[in-house]
Amino acid sequence: MTLRTRITLLTLALLAASLLVMGVAVYSLLARYLYQGLRAELDDALGQVVRLINSGGRNLLGVALPPTVYAEVDLVLALPPFRPEDLMEAVPLVQSPALGGQRLKLNKRDYERLLKEGIIWTRIELPRRTGGPLHLLVRASLLEAQGPPPLNRIPAVVLVAKSTEPIEATLSQLVRIYAATAMLVLLVGGWLAYLLVARTLSPLEAIAKQAEAISARSFAPLPEPEGADEVAALARALNRMLARLEEAFEAQRRFLADASHELRTPITAILGHVGYLKRRTNPSPTQTESLEVIARESERMKKLVGDLLDLAESEAGWRFEPRPVLLQPVLSEVAEEFAPAFSGKIELELPEEEVWVRSDPDRLHQVFANLVSNAIKAGAKTIRLRVRAPGKRVIVQVADDGPGIPREHLPHLFERFYRVDKARDRAKGGSGLGLAIVKAIVEASGGEVWVESTPGEGTTFSVALPRAEPPPGV
After folding, report:
1. DSSP 148
2. 165: how many CB neighbours lie within 10 A of its CB?
3. 222 or 7, greater pLDDT
4. Is 306 exposed, middle or buried, given 0-12, 13-18 or 19+ CB atoms closer than 10 A?
5. Which of 77, 200, 349, 378 is deepest in the core (most CB within 10 A)?
6. Which residue has the higher pLDDT, 449 or 299?
7. How many other C-beta atoms can be found within 10 angstroms of the C-beta atom of residue 455?
8. Quick check: is 193 in a domain?
9. Sheet holding 119-126, edge to edge
10. Integer Cα distance of 393 and 286 in angstroms
11. Is the pLDDT of residue 151 over 60?
């Protein structure tokens, strides 16, 4: 998951949490306000019913109360001390017409609370012909009527109730409207957050893209955003670091190239004098052996210096002239070059039709010469050069039956000066630079190189090169 996505999701999560907290707070406050108003209305209705009863105006009960208020007065015919069963069996004294013949009956637990507290709040449900039950908020009070005989001093239960459906409908509508609004806010907020994060991170993405293109050959400066924010400061710091790295790499390249050039002259002189001594003097056997050691080591040093110079030139931008190259003659020349000194066998598996690749012919010869030389040094008895031409690429495989390379060494084979004990022993003349040069040449040709090996069975180096059309007139 990208940083842009993570920041956007985190912003959406925080926004959603804020909307949820706000919604719960609004819902709670509105519900509290509405139910407080309903309770105040029921308290007023209860006081009005009690005043009507005490003044003997029972017949005015249905007229005096709002039509949405349900009221009932139950006369208790038992003597104190009362029990909940006595209240549950009370005879209705008067009812409001809104009840339509139904009764407001409390359950036993509510009656117990009523006897204990004298006045309570509770909820009951009344059945209806259609739809679900009618939900009511009830205010119940236990009192002694103060009216004319014989009702005075006789306890009664006064119940007033009102439907909570309008409040529930209002709250439900609030939830629907708020949910839709919250979804819209989340969508718009997420889109705006994504755009804002994208705009904020775009300089970093440009810096990262430019940084990926940086190599030992190119230290192009990173784009510096305008302003003095953290991203601009980061870009400026990276550019200063790149400038120092470029200076260090350039100094290293100059030293490597200059040292390689300077070393070639004394090595050539050493080899010349060794040849002169062997031809013009009559050295003893011991002296001859020493001269051969000097010549052999000088040749090895000459090759190492040449490899170092090749790497220095590749980093500095060597003269590389890619053009269509016919592959079969190059591989045949490599086989003929190594065949006289190789006690084993070099096999060529070349297609009959001409295969052209795009590369520098001299450098391409160097690639396959290095691979064949490595196979010989590794102790191979048979080396096969195979060509496959699938589609727009040509794959050349250099396979040997040598001892193979352990798997843990394979990812490091193309690193400079990396050696595998048996395959790149110093006594066999390996410098540890041949495969690094191979990789540099192949990549400069627009191709790639990889290796597969099984210990005890052999090693196969594969070189993939872009296919080319024959030049005009060929």
Report:
1. S
2. 14
3. 7
4. middle
5. 378
6. 449
7. 12
8. no
9. 91-95, 69-75, 155-163, 134-144, 119-126
10. 55
11. no
Pairing status of strand 345-349 against strand 458-466: unpaired
Q: How far apart are CA 325 and CA 166, in angstroms?
A: 89
Instruction: At 149, list the tokens.
Output: 């005989």
Please give the residue that has the higher pLDDT: either 262 or 358: 358
Is the confidence at residue 429, as pLDDT, over 70?
Answer: no
Q: What is the DSSP track for 18-59?
A: HHHHHHHHHHHHHHHHHHHHHHHHHHHHHHHHHHHHHTT-GG
Which is more confidently placed, 2 or 170?
A: 170
Pairing label, strands 69-75, 448-454: unpaired
Residue type, 390: P
* Domain membership of residue 270 as a residue range: 230-316
Q: Which residues contact 286 (CB under 8 A, 6 or more apart)?
A: none
Distances (CA, A) of 299 to 191, 304, 455: 68, 9, 31
Q: Are residues 341 and 460 in the same domain?
A: yes
**What is the CATH number for 268?**
1.10.287.130
d(CA 463, CA 292): 36
* Listed ranges 18-27, 100-109, 230-239, 413-422; the one with the highest mean pLDDT: 18-27
- Nearest Cα to Cα of residue 344 among 366, 368, 370, 372: 372
Which of 297, 316, 335 is a domain's end point? 316
In this predicted model, what pLDDT tens digit does every residue of 299-350 receive, in sequence order?
Answer: 777 777 776 666 666 655 556 678 899 999 999 999 998 888 888 889 999 8
Q: Which residues, listed in sequence order, are joined to residue 452 by a DSSP beta bridge? A: 460
